[in-house]
Design goal:
About 25% of the residues lie in helices and about 25% in strands. It has helices at about 5, 35-50, 70-75, 95-110, 145-155, 165-180, 195-200, 220-235, and strands at about 15, 20-25, 55-65, 110-120, 125-130, 160, 205-215, 250-260, 265, 275, 280-285, 290, 295-300, 310-320.
Length: about 325
Amino acid sequence: MSDVLAQHHLRVHQFHGLRPGPRLLVLGAVHGNETAGTRGIERVLAELDAGTLRIVRGSVTLVPVTNPLAYARGQRAGERNLNRKLQPSAVPQDFEDRIANRLCPLLDAHDALLDLHSFQGAGEAFVMIGPEDNEGTLEPFAHAAMEERLARHLGVRRIVDGWLCVYEAGVARRRARTQAAGRTLDADPNYGVGTTEYMRSRGGFAMTLECGQHEDPQAPEVAYHAIRQTLALLRLAPIELQPPRQDHEVLRLVEAVDRLHADDRFVREWASFDAVEAGEPIAVRHDGHLLAAPAAGRIVFPNRRAEPGQEWYYLAQPSARRLA
């Protein structure tokens, strides 16, 4: 797909069952270099076209490439990260704003979202879910049981929550740091809102499935299996629901750490969910300051290519959350 073609349309495939049921949206390539979801969706589309898979209830909307410009360029973003501060724009400023003006109404029109991603470093696939039911101001929610049940059936072992809370705290620290240095930063607490957070804010339920490392040949299979399990659980297609795994590890994100300088470095090559002990060295700042784990847990999304001022890695700890 050329840059020119990519900037003109968003391709959406929609299937309506003849009986009432929930409305499911499945997204691939929200980040253009994360293609496992695209390949998984294409496989499901081929089955639907061949008649070996049928949608009998509700509706299913499949978007193989959600950010076509980034996908055409083979990179994470076209002009900015589509999965941050996702909202409609009266006066769009960039390509991702124009996509958001089509994507947000699409999200509004559905009850459930499965957003398929992958990650840069080595590591095993995992799913990110929303908060427990609450009436707070940051991310009020009432469908935790449904998200938990679906997460258990997707076929992955690790389940992670806490995204928006830890992201908001990270933005607050970044804002305080840059203001102290005489610079400005987007102070909007909604900067951490992506597809799943937007869907929950509109009354639906959603999850992000990280299907594995970008180039892992098994990642598209993870995506494909998850789509079919979601269709089965929501009873949208006559597919047998496979039993859930019994070995789940539930983690909660507790801290986001930014890279501050181009010479900041990790003490070793980390993979997502590598275990860390309390006090274990993780990274060294350019001035020699050592960053150590405050408690036993795991490192998540370590990104040695992070730009200064952006997220470098996250820390997670075991959660006491009991899954539905």
